[in-house]
Amino acid sequence: MNVLLLGSGGREHAMAWSIAKSDKLDKLYIAPGNPGTAQHGTNVDLSLSDFDAILDFIEGNDIELTVVGPEQPLVDGITDFLEEKGHKVFGPSRLAAQLEGSKKFANEFMKENRIPTAEFESYSRGEFDKALKVIKSKDEYPVVLKADGLAGGKGVFICETEEEVENRLNELKESKQFKEAAQKLVVEEFLEGKEASVFVISDGKTARILHYAQDHKRIGEGDTGLNTGGMGAYCPTPVIGNRMLQRVEKEIILPTISAMLLDENPYKGILYCGLMITKEGPKVVEFNCRLGDPEAQAILPSIESDFLELMDAAASEELDQKEVRIDDKYRCCVVLASEGYPVEYEKGKEITGFGDISGDALVFHAGTKSQDGKILTDGGRVLSVVGAGDTLEDSIRNTYQEVDKISFANKYYRSDIGAKGLKHVS
Ligand code: AMP
Ligand code: GLY
């Protein structure tokens, strides 16, 4: 089959790599893609917000399945738009993607369906003063403030003091960046525990767990400094054992998929369950409507089943006929970034060392561009390096050996990816 994959990050390079392994694939196109995805198919210069141009491309190139990588086009309704024209899409509808697109929607949905999550209150833009009053009267810190809409991971604030709450509320009110996202505000109880992410594939009725991982969101070692899109991940994470995974399935995944179906809002695509494993059990911190970046780079190489077949079965509502097989390796993914990310950084530095990477390690591109036969840095998160091992420790060691082989000016990475998992084992 001919496939169009939408997106251009490290996650999409890993998806392209995975799709390209399938016997079912004829031609793979990636829009807009990056120099890494171009190794597995043909990059096409399309904007993800230009749905008409995407439709023209699909119709002109006999595309049988469109796979959507990032959240924005899903929340904007690309699936509905293409399905109405008779095309098959892997990714949830606009309404189902509200599980990520609106924190208020997700929290109310979970409350209604008794899916464990944080206690919360939601407020409209005109009620920020009321929110402050309620927070002051409760006097319980830390407290979590969340802009309702998509904010690229930057709309969540964990506030330790009343003063911080006031400052953040003013920021949300005045910031142009959050104008859309902060039309509503959610105030949440702070959940204590260990974070982990479980990735699920669903056709609306059947749900299968793909894998589970732990992300490293902060820029600095020891989880310090600013939040980023993700500086590294590893899988599987010992934070979730077999029994905990069963609880997550029973208490979170199955009730979510069946309640969405009952609400006539079936969830087809990837459901990313961002969890806090608390003393009382697993609780949802966030839902996302797509694979994580950089978690995808660690989990996709672990999936032995044909990922394209799984996505096609999910889009065709035939997932009950498929099983997900994963291998028994640990994988670690370290993001190589440009020094200064996530604030300001330089681009255009030459990257070398690709040829020295060992056979079983993988390097996925994100912020790169090719120019005059060279690969240059072109973004904050530049590359992800993924290594495998029989133990978590081995996978970490093997990955960092490869990390050292890649060079570019201003290369920055965290040297403690996976360390929180090791702590958990010992
Ligand atoms: P989100 O975008 O909702 O995943 O939030 C970003 C990060 O903020 C999460 O990965 C958590 O580390 C943290 N976070 C969000 N909500 C809570 C909460 N209710 N309690 C504790 N930490 C949270
Ligand atoms: N790595 C976090 C995310 O993709 O949202």
Note down, in words, how this protein is organized.
The protein has helices spanning 10-20, 51-60, 71-75, 78-84, 98-101, 103-112, 128-138, 162-174, 242-262, 295-299, 307-315, 392-403, 419-425; strands at 3-7, 28-32, 42-43, 65-68, 89-90, 120-124, 143-147, 156-159, 184-189, 194-203, 207-215, 218-220, 224-227, 232-235, 268-278, 281-288, 330-338, 362-365, 368-371, 374-377, 381-389, 411-412. By secondary structure, it is of the alpha+beta class. The protein folds into 4 domains: 2-76, Rossmann fold; 119-189, ATP-grasp fold, A domain (Dna Ligase, domain 1, 2-Layer Sandwich); 194-321, ATP-grasp fold, B domain (D-amino Acid Aminotransferase, Chain A, domain 1, 2-Layer Sandwich); 330-425, Alpha-Beta Complex (Glycinamide Ribonucleotide Synthetase, Chain A, domain 4). Strands 10, 11, 14, 15, 16, 17, 18, 21 and 22 form a 9-stranded antiparallel beta sheet that branches. Helix 7 (128-138) runs antiparallel to helix 8 (162-174). The longest helix has 21 residues, at 242-262. The model has no long low-confidence stretch (mean pLDDT 96).
Quick description:
By secondary structure, the protein is an alpha+beta fold. It has helices at residues 10-20, 51-60, 71-75, 78-84, 98-101, 103-112, 128-138, 162-174, 242-262, 295-299, 307-315, 392-403, 419-425, and strands spanning 3-7, 28-32, 42-43, 65-68, 89-90, 120-124, 143-147, 156-159, 184-189, 194-203, 207-215, 218-220, 224-227, 232-235, 268-278, 281-288, 330-338, 362-365, 368-371, 374-377, 381-389, 411-412.
